[in-house]
Amino acid sequence: MRDDLHQLAGRGPFRAITEFVNRRIFNELAFRPEDQFVDIGCGHGLLLRMAMDSGVRSAVGLNATDEEVRPLRALGLDVRQGRTDSIPLPDGCASVVACNSVLLLVPEDKMSKSLREIARICKPNARIWLGEIPRVEEITSVPRHESVPTGNIHQDGRGCWAAG
Ligand SMILES: C[S@@+](CC[C@H](N)C(=O)[O-])C[C@H]1O[C@@H](n2cnc3c(N)ncnc32)[C@H](O)[C@@H]1O
Protein backbone atom coordinates (compact mmCIF):
# COMPACT_ATOMS: atom_id res chain seq x y z
CA MET A 1 0.00 0.00 0.00
CA ARG A 2 2.65 2.52 1.01
CA ASP A 3 4.71 1.61 -2.07
CA ASP A 4 1.71 2.46 -4.25
CA LEU A 5 1.29 5.80 -2.50
CA HIS A 6 4.95 6.52 -2.99
CA GLN A 7 4.60 5.87 -6.73
CA LEU A 8 1.40 7.91 -6.84
CA ALA A 9 3.17 10.88 -5.26
CA GLY A 10 5.55 10.98 -8.23
CA ARG A 11 8.46 9.62 -6.20
CA GLY A 12 9.11 6.67 -8.47
CA PRO A 13 11.33 3.99 -6.91
CA PHE A 14 13.45 6.45 -4.87
CA ARG A 15 12.18 5.42 -1.43
CA ALA A 16 15.54 5.74 0.32
CA ILE A 17 15.94 9.32 -0.95
CA THR A 18 12.40 10.19 0.16
CA GLU A 19 13.09 8.81 3.64
CA PHE A 20 16.47 10.53 3.90
CA VAL A 21 15.04 13.89 2.81
CA ASN A 22 11.97 13.72 5.01
CA ARG A 23 14.08 12.73 8.04
CA ARG A 24 16.29 15.72 7.33
CA ILE A 25 13.30 18.07 7.07
CA PHE A 26 11.84 16.62 10.28
CA ASN A 27 15.10 17.33 12.13
CA GLU A 28 15.33 20.88 10.78
CA LEU A 29 11.74 21.74 11.74
CA ALA A 30 12.34 20.75 15.38
CA PHE A 31 8.67 20.06 16.18
CA ARG A 32 7.26 21.10 19.56
CA PRO A 33 4.13 19.80 21.33
CA GLU A 34 2.23 23.04 20.65
CA ASP A 35 2.94 23.00 16.90
CA GLN A 36 0.16 23.04 14.33
CA PHE A 37 1.75 21.52 11.26
CA VAL A 38 0.63 21.74 7.63
CA ASP A 39 2.39 19.67 4.97
CA ILE A 40 1.47 21.04 1.54
CA GLY A 41 1.84 18.29 -1.06
CA CYS A 42 2.39 15.65 1.61
CA GLY A 43 2.96 12.81 -0.87
CA HIS A 44 2.69 9.43 0.83
CA GLY A 45 2.51 11.13 4.23
CA LEU A 46 5.86 10.21 5.78
CA LEU A 47 6.65 13.68 7.20
CA LEU A 48 3.07 13.97 8.45
CA ARG A 49 3.41 10.68 10.33
CA MET A 50 6.78 11.72 11.78
CA ALA A 51 5.24 14.98 13.03
CA MET A 52 2.24 13.16 14.53
CA ASP A 53 4.47 10.57 16.18
CA SER A 54 6.53 13.38 17.73
CA GLY A 55 3.35 14.57 19.49
CA VAL A 56 2.48 17.83 17.75
CA ARG A 57 -0.91 19.43 18.54
CA SER A 58 -2.14 18.91 14.96
CA ALA A 59 -0.84 17.72 11.60
CA VAL A 60 -2.74 18.33 8.36
CA GLY A 61 -1.61 17.29 4.89
CA LEU A 62 -2.73 18.49 1.47
CA ASN A 63 -2.45 16.60 -1.77
CA ALA A 64 -3.47 17.63 -5.25
CA THR A 65 -5.88 14.78 -6.02
CA ASP A 66 -8.58 12.81 -4.24
CA GLU A 67 -6.88 9.69 -5.55
CA GLU A 68 -3.89 10.50 -3.32
CA VAL A 69 -5.99 11.75 -0.42
CA ARG A 70 -8.30 8.76 0.06
CA PRO A 71 -5.70 6.08 0.97
CA LEU A 72 -3.97 8.43 3.42
CA ARG A 73 -7.26 9.22 5.14
CA ALA A 74 -7.92 5.48 5.33
CA LEU A 75 -4.66 5.22 7.29
CA GLY A 76 -6.03 7.74 9.80
CA LEU A 77 -4.12 10.78 8.59
CA ASP A 78 -5.84 14.18 8.32
CA VAL A 79 -5.19 14.77 4.63
CA ARG A 80 -7.33 17.00 2.43
CA GLN A 81 -7.50 17.70 -1.26
CA GLY A 82 -6.08 21.14 -2.03
CA ARG A 83 -3.71 23.00 -4.29
CA THR A 84 -0.92 25.35 -3.36
CA ASP A 85 -2.72 28.30 -4.99
CA SER A 86 -5.99 27.65 -3.12
CA ILE A 87 -5.25 26.16 0.28
CA PRO A 88 -8.47 25.05 2.02
CA LEU A 89 -7.33 26.19 5.47
CA PRO A 90 -7.97 29.37 7.51
CA ASP A 91 -5.59 32.31 7.88
CA GLY A 92 -2.88 31.92 10.50
CA CYS A 93 -3.58 28.27 11.29
CA ALA A 94 -0.03 26.87 11.02
CA SER A 95 3.02 27.29 13.23
CA VAL A 96 5.04 24.98 10.95
CA VAL A 97 4.62 24.55 7.18
CA ALA A 98 6.45 22.22 4.83
CA CYS A 99 6.13 22.29 1.06
CA ASN A 100 8.80 19.98 -0.25
CA SER A 101 9.32 18.93 -3.83
CA VAL A 102 5.95 20.38 -4.79
CA LEU A 103 6.48 23.89 -6.19
CA LEU A 104 8.50 22.39 -9.03
CA LEU A 105 5.20 20.86 -10.19
CA VAL A 106 3.23 24.11 -9.95
CA PRO A 107 2.71 26.09 -13.18
CA GLU A 108 4.61 29.37 -13.26
CA ASP A 109 1.45 31.49 -13.45
CA LYS A 110 0.27 30.00 -10.13
CA MET A 111 3.54 30.52 -8.27
CA SER A 112 2.89 34.01 -6.80
CA LYS A 113 -0.58 33.02 -5.60
CA SER A 114 0.89 29.81 -4.14
CA LEU A 115 3.53 31.70 -2.15
CA ARG A 116 0.88 34.18 -0.93
CA GLU A 117 -1.32 31.27 0.16
CA ILE A 118 1.52 29.70 2.11
CA ALA A 119 2.18 33.04 3.84
CA ARG A 120 -1.56 33.46 4.55
CA ILE A 121 -1.92 30.23 6.54
CA CYS A 122 1.19 30.92 8.65
CA LYS A 123 1.06 32.23 12.20
CA PRO A 124 3.55 35.01 13.02
CA ASN A 125 7.06 33.53 13.33
CA ALA A 126 6.00 30.25 11.73
CA ARG A 127 8.80 27.92 10.65
CA ILE A 128 8.56 27.23 6.91
CA TRP A 129 10.34 24.61 4.84
CA LEU A 130 10.19 25.24 1.07
CA GLY A 131 12.28 22.57 -0.62
CA GLU A 132 12.95 21.24 -4.06
CA ILE A 133 14.80 18.05 -4.78
CA PRO A 134 16.96 18.02 -7.88
CA ARG A 135 17.26 14.50 -9.19
CA VAL A 136 19.65 12.97 -11.67
CA GLU A 137 16.92 10.78 -13.12
CA GLU A 138 13.81 12.94 -13.31
CA ILE A 139 10.61 11.11 -14.16
CA THR A 140 9.78 12.31 -17.65
CA SER A 141 6.01 12.20 -17.12
CA VAL A 142 6.17 14.76 -14.26
CA PRO A 143 5.96 18.37 -15.51
CA ARG A 144 8.83 20.56 -14.33
CA HIS A 145 10.17 24.06 -14.67
CA GLU A 146 13.14 24.83 -16.90
CA SER A 147 14.81 26.34 -13.81
CA VAL A 148 15.05 23.02 -11.98
CA PRO A 149 18.74 22.16 -12.25
CA THR A 150 19.97 18.90 -13.68
CA GLY A 151 23.29 17.14 -13.31
CA ASN A 152 25.00 15.33 -10.49
CA ILE A 153 23.62 15.92 -7.01
CA HIS A 154 26.06 16.54 -4.17
CA GLN A 155 25.97 17.90 -0.64
CA ASP A 156 27.42 21.36 -0.09
CA GLY A 157 29.28 22.45 3.07
CA ARG A 158 26.06 23.33 4.91
CA GLY A 159 24.57 19.91 4.21
CA CYS A 160 22.19 21.19 1.51
CA TRP A 161 21.64 19.26 -1.69
CA ALA A 162 22.73 20.98 -4.87
CA ALA A 163 23.07 20.04 -8.51
CA GLY A 164 26.16 20.62 -10.53
C1 LIG B 1 7.09 14.65 -5.38
S1 LIG B 1 5.73 14.54 -4.24
C2 LIG B 1 6.45 15.25 -2.77
C3 LIG B 1 5.90 14.60 -1.56
C4 LIG B 1 6.50 15.04 -0.23
N1 LIG B 1 6.33 16.47 -0.01
C5 LIG B 1 7.94 14.63 -0.09
O1 LIG B 1 8.83 15.49 -0.12
O2 LIG B 1 8.20 13.43 0.02
C6 LIG B 1 4.69 15.83 -4.86
C7 LIG B 1 3.34 15.92 -4.15
O3 LIG B 1 2.81 17.23 -4.40
C8 LIG B 1 1.44 17.14 -4.61
N2 LIG B 1 1.11 18.25 -5.50
C9 LIG B 1 1.40 18.40 -6.79
N3 LIG B 1 0.96 19.58 -7.25
C10 LIG B 1 0.36 20.19 -6.19
C11 LIG B 1 -0.32 21.41 -6.01
N4 LIG B 1 -0.49 22.28 -7.01
N5 LIG B 1 -0.80 21.70 -4.79
C12 LIG B 1 -0.65 20.83 -3.76
N6 LIG B 1 -0.01 19.65 -3.86
C13 LIG B 1 0.46 19.34 -5.06
C14 LIG B 1 1.16 15.80 -5.21
O4 LIG B 1 -0.14 15.42 -4.84
C15 LIG B 1 2.29 14.93 -4.63
O5 LIG B 1 1.84 14.20 -3.54
Describe it for me?
The protein is of the alpha/beta class. The chain has a single domain, classed as Vaccinia Virus protein VP39 (Rossmann fold, 3-Layer(aba) Sandwich). Helix content is 31%, strand content 23%. It contains five helices and seven strands. The protein has a five-stranded parallel beta sheet with strand order 3-2-1-4-5. It has a two-stranded antiparallel ribbon with strand order 6-7. Strand 6 (153-155) and strand 7 (161-163) form a beta hairpin. The N and C termini lie far apart (35 Å). The model is unreliable at 145-164 (pLDDT under 50). Bound molecules: S-adenosylmethionine. S-adenosylmethionine (SAM) binds at residues 9-11, 18, 21-22, 40-43, 62-65, 68, 83-84, 100-102, 105-106. S-adenosylmethionine (SAM) is lined by residues 9-11, 18, 21-22, 40-43, 62-65, 68, 83-84, 100-102, 105-106.
**Order of strands in the sheet with most strands:** 3-2-1-4-5
CATH superfamily: Vaccinia Virus protein VP39
Query: Proportion of β residues?
Result: 15-25%
Give the topology string: H per helix, E per strand: HHEHEHEEHEEE
Distance between the termini: 35 Å
Number of structural units classed as domains? 1
Radius of gyration: 15 Å
Give a count of the beta strands, DSSP E runs of length 2 or more.
Answer: 7
> Can you identify the CATH class?
Alpha Beta
Helix content: 25-40%
Count of helices?
A: 5
Average pLDDT taken over every residue = 83
CATH architecture: 3-Layer(aba) Sandwich
* Biggest beta sheet attributes: 5 strands, parallel
Please tell me what the overall shape is: globular
